[in-house]
Structure to design on (594 residues):
């Protein structure tokens, strides 16, 4: 490969950004994920708002994972305001999160990453070759949509969640009616696991520091301590004191590091740190295809997502089968000064929110650390490590391999920023060879 | 069988809100004339558009479109959409064109046979609010175009009669 590489836009990721790879003396000298969309200032315009406005505003950060933003924000504000929700509210929040996982993971597995592994230009070609696979994906997604609409009022940017719980309980009959769909979805997710095991994954084992929520009794999504692969664990409230953000010149998204090094959040981290907390159905599904932790290949995050599909379908079925709407749908509270933080597991990884409420009861400060931003430094490290593989390749193949690696992360650049264009910037002598 | 009217766009990227604003303006002025019409506003739905329109006889989609040399409301067929790349501005790259193409590749999908697209040319999709005053003429034209589309019979009905 002797020419600069330019790809106008990386396809099949949420949002837009650019990539520059510098090459000198036959080696990669620079890898920069150029996240150049202007900052979106969400933290800034939350200031002065009523806490009850926060979940609906932060949900607009992302059309793919609005529930994650709502759950992290309501939990952080409840910590700030001294609110403890009831077990019934917590169960309904878990159910809501299941819907988002089904939608997000199904989209990424079938529509975004699988075409790469199958060397298919997009899911359109996959639909022509194997329509039954795409139809399974669409029905799975639709079931996620139905649950999200039933619980959240609509399938994109739901509106039912509030600080303290839900504005009202959903209709139990509407939820019971979804049980046959979820029985099908569980079977379809098991089929997804089996299908995912047949896909060809590039050999690319990496040495990651995994970071994910851990819960003593369940596969942690909604709450817990923040665990990591060296065995250490911290409280949610210490998150931004341990995982430090810094600016880099080429990106409007902040990078995060742990002890000065990149780390990984997301499905691989959750699978590896919480495997023993998976439901029996999900553990059996993993065993059936010989999948055991640790998974250290970023492309195989697809398989972790497939196992998580089984997990959330099994959890959703369990909750749907034992619905109890006891007491009020939301806990009343008095506004007061306070500060609180929370981490929940968005489909793409740990999502941290911290809020300070002033003595008038309004938001004085807000801080949000999205999972994609936390992974950016780690993606750059992976691209460095991919160098020896891509440098001997023709331009188009090298570009494609970079894109596919980035896509395997399912980055939501909209959450951290937007626009991805790939440019390999060779040193002048390199370009002349 | 029913007709669904869908406004598409995002309120965060200036002219990309045109589709939403047009349907809202139409709804305020003419909504009462069409009590059986299903009206939806979707921000960056991506592939979520599909389950929403499936099962309906006719879908009228109103969306902003990047066509710098065009003026006024563009009446588009599905086959026209390939000329307009939705690109990365759409959720995960799944814009209207890609989503409808996927539906047509799966014959079992109950996607409307009659889909009409009203494209509203954008000047800017930079972050920020829509300048409704500057877009007033286009929005007015879009309102009338929506009403005109609704006045027509669905294709399948028309061809059967």
């Amino acid at each position: 490969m002797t020419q600069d590489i330019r790809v106008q836009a990386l396809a099949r990721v949420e949002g837009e950004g650019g990539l520059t790879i510098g090459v000198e003396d036959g080696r990669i000298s620079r890898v920069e994920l150029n996240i150049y969309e202007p900052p979106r200032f969400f933290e800034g315009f939350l200031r002065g708002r009523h806490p009850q406005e926060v979940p609906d505003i932060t949900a607009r950060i992302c059309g793919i994972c609005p529930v994650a933003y709502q759950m992290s924000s309501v939990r952080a504000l409840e910590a700030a305001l001294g609110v403890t929700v009831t077990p019934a509210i917590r169960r309904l929040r878990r159910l809501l999160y299941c819907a988002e996982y089904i939608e997000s993971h199904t989209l990424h597995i079938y529509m975004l990453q699988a075409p790469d592994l199958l060397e298919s230009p997009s899911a359109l070609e996959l639909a022509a070759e194997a329509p039954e696979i795409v139809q399974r994906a669409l029905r799975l997604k639709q079931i996620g949509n139905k649950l999200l609409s039933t619980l959240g009022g609509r399938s994109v940017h739901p509106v039912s969640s509030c600080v303290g719980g839900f504005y009202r309980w959903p209709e139990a009959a509407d939820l019971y009616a979804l049980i046959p769909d979820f029985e099908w979805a569980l079977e379809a997710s098991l089929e997804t696991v089996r299908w995912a095991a047949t896909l060809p994954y590039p050999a690319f084992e990496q040495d990651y520091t995994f970071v994910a929520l851990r819960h003593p009794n369940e596969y942690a999504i909604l709450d817990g301590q923040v665990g990591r692969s060296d065995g250490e664990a911290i409280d949610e409230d210490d998150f931004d004191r341990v995982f430090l953000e810094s600016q880099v010149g080429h990106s409007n998204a902040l990078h995060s590091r742990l002890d000065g090094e990149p780390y990984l959040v997301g499905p691989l981290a959750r699978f590896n740190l919480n495997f023993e907390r998976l439901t029996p159905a999900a553990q059996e599904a993993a065993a059936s295809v010989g999948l055991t932790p640790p998974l250290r290949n970023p492309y195989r995050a697809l398989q972790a997502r497939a196992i998580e599909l089984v997990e959330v379908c099994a959890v959703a079925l369990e909750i749907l089968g034992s619905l109890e709407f006891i007491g009020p749908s939301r806990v009343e509270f008095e506004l007061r000064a306070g500060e609180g933080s929370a981490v929940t597991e968005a489909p793409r990884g740990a999502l941290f929110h911290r809020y300070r409420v002033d003595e008038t009861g309004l938001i004085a400060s807000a801080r949000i650390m999205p999972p994609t931003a936390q992974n950016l430094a780690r993606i750059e490290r992976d691209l460095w490590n991919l160098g020896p593989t891509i440098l001997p390749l023709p331009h188009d193949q090298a570009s494609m391999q970079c894109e596919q690696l980035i896509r395997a992360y399912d980055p939501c650049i909209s959450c951290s920023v937007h626009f991805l264009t790939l440019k390999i910037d060779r040193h002048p002598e390199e370009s002349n060879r | 069988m029913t007709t669904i009217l869908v406004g598409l766009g995002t309120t965060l990227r200036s002219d990309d809100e045109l589709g939403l604003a047009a349907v809202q303006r139409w709804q305020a002025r003419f909504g009462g004339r069409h009590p059986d019409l299903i009206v939806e506003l979707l921000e960056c739905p991506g592939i979520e558009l599909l389950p929403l329109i499936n099962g309906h006889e006719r879908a009228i989609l109103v969306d902003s479109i990047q066509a710098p040399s065009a003026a006024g409301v563009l009446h588009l067929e599905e086959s026209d959409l390939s000329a307009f790349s939705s690109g990365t501005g759409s959720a995960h790259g799944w814009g209207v064109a890609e989503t409808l193409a996927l539906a047509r590749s799966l014959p079992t999908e109950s996607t409307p046979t009659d889909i009409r697209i009203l494209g509203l040319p954008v000047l800017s999709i930079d972050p920020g609010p829509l300048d409704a005053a500057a877009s007033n003429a286009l929005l007015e034209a879009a309102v009338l175009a929506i009403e005109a589309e609704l006045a027509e019979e669905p294709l399948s009905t028309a061809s059967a009669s």
